[in-house]
Amino acid sequence: MIEIRVDEEACNGCGLCVKDCPMGVFELKSSVSSPVHPENCMGCLSCHEICPAQALEHRGVVPCRRMYVSMKVCRMLNRVI
Ligand code: SF4
Ligand code: SF4
């Protein structure tokens, strides 16, 4: 299972990870992101890309899952691979 950690000192509470995560993993609690549903994480690392504070850490991500960008891109990839 993927383990998610939030650096609470670094997190600025912008909420971008909450809006960006396609699996609803995060919620803001007292202006800090909290991974309330880590079991839903599919390891796309989109939240890493968008976090301006580099406050997120994931452990146990399978490297091939990092290809996920969006469902539109996945459908395009399905046609060529
Ligand atoms: S995107 Fe980063 S800085 Fe913004 S709420 Fe999420 S963890 Fe915090
Ligand atoms: S890696 Fe993807 S699914 Fe997992 S918490 Fe980040 S945005 Fe959500």
Order of helices and strands: EHEEHEH
The CATH architecture can be given as 2-Layer Sandwich
Major sheet size, sense and barrel closure: 2 strands, antiparallel
Number of domains: 1
**Number of helical regions:** 3
Radius of gyration: 13 Å
Question: How many beta-strand runs?
Answer: 4
Small molecules (ligands, ions, cofactors) in the structure: iron/sulfur cluster
Strand order of the largest sheet: 1-4
Shape: elongated
Instruction: Report the mean per-residue pLDDT as an integer.
Output: 88
Quick rundown:
This protein has 81 residues and is α+β, with helices and mostly antiparallel strands.
Fold and architecture overview:
- This protein has 81 residues and is α+β, with helices and mostly antiparallel strands.
- The chain has a single domain (3-80), classed as Alpha-Beta Plaits, CATH 3.30.70.20.
- 25% of the residues lie in helices and 20% in strands.
- The mean pLDDT is 88.
- One iron/sulfur cluster binds at residues 6, 11-17, 33, 51-53, 55-56.
